[in-house]
Amino acid sequence: MQRTFLAGQTRQSMRDWMAGNGQPAYRADQVLAWVHQRHAADWAAMSDLPKLLRERLQASFNFPSLRLAQQQGSEDTTRKFLWRLHDATFVESVLIPANPSLYGDKSDRHTLCISTQVGCAYGCKFCASGLDGFKRNLEPAEIIEQVLAVERIHHAATPASKSRLVNNLVIMGMGEPLANYVNLMGALEILNAEWGGNIGARKITVSTSGLAPQIRMLADQPWQFRLALSLHGATDEVRSRIMPINRKYPLQELVDAAAYYQTRKKGMITLEYILIAGVNDMPEQTLPLARIAQRLHAKVNLIPYNTVEGLPWQRPEPAVQTAFLKRLQALNVTATLRREKGHDIDAACGQLRLRVEKEIAALQP
Ligand code: SAH
Ligand code: SF4
To answer: Are residues 251 and 323 in the same domain?
Structure first.
């Protein structure tokens, strides 16, 4: 029998399985609590389930599916996790400790940045994730397991702590989340559900390079997810130069879709704007950027570019970054300049995986 991923089960699918196996419905909740709240690392840990039931579960479900391949960083700094998937591909997650200026509200404890695809098909010129092209979509369980695996590592290191570590999620790791829309929604439903991850929708930020139709679809969902729009250029000329998707959905179409999102979910949009020297950091970009921000009632997050090995782009001098920020603020835009955490540990998306894959390739005859 083909096994499916345990972490991707909903309460209903688990209840159906229990019913099909002659078990009472409450067993479904017991299993889900072990998976999502009690950080079980294996079947043996589920001590209040009869052994025979555990054996049957094991025959039906894979648990867990991610293996930690590498970890960088320390307990109280940005930590990066490289996961090996069942088909020997890799994705990464980044854990960022409390930072009030990040997404969500001011009481953040830990934000986890998770991946949705292996590689990325969108080929933004500055990004490490797209360098090797696209391999595959992650399953809902593989998206969810990134959260569970980080929680398990945390609880193994500090067994006394009962509370959750991750209380804020950003879907900003490798891949384009809205290009894996169905699996993303399946994962977020479980991460948000009370019986599952129990992370509030307003604590979940979906980042997109600008898939206009899917932004509208997301707007029509009942959940109040935050949307981070990777703008990086406020005119078509600049944006098309670095983001090929801008040719498919130019700014007019993209901003219209985002405006629709804004009408459905008020105050939920952040514009991401990486500052790349000589590309998009010119003073002339600030006025069109301010106009977009005002239309969307969005704040702007300026991020100095993280250099990627093999790519020619650089971050601007600090004085240029500050001048850009000040101009935006003078145009009445709420803007922050995020001094990137984790620059030294390849925290920008896709970089750790790229390096490890190169190392692995170098080992092969
Ligand atoms: N595909 C989605 C989500 C993953 S990328 C998107 O593009 O939004 C997450 C964010 O990291 C995006 O804003 C992306 O533009 C940014 N990013 C990619 N490479 C970067 C780099 N080298 N330095 C800083 N930010 C980078
Ligand atoms: Fe893909 Fe986002 Fe990187 Fe663009 S920035 S290549 S969409 S992961």
So the answer is: yes
Q: Please indicate, yes or no, whether residues 30 and 170 belong to a single structural domain of this protein.
A: no
Q: What is the DSSP string of 24-65?
A: -THHHHHHHHHHHTS---SGGG-TTS-HHHHHHHHHHEE---
Atom 23 of ligand 1: nearest residue by CA position = 306
The question of whether 349 is a catalytic residue gets the answer yes
Catalytic choice (272, 340, 349, 359):
349
Write the CATH number for 42: 1.10.150.530
pLDDT digits (tens, 9 = 90+) for 127-167: 988 787 899 999 999 999 999 999 999 888 877 776 778 98
Domain boundaries, position 21:
4-62
Please, are residues 154 and 165 in contact by the beta-carbon 8 Å criterion? yes
Partner residues linked to 136 by β-bridges: 118
Assess whether pLDDT exceeds 90 at residue 357.
Answer: no
**Helices 251-264 and 286-296 sit at what angle, rounded to 10 degrees?**
30
Pocket test for ligand 1, best of 94, 227, 274 (most atoms within 8 A of CB): 274
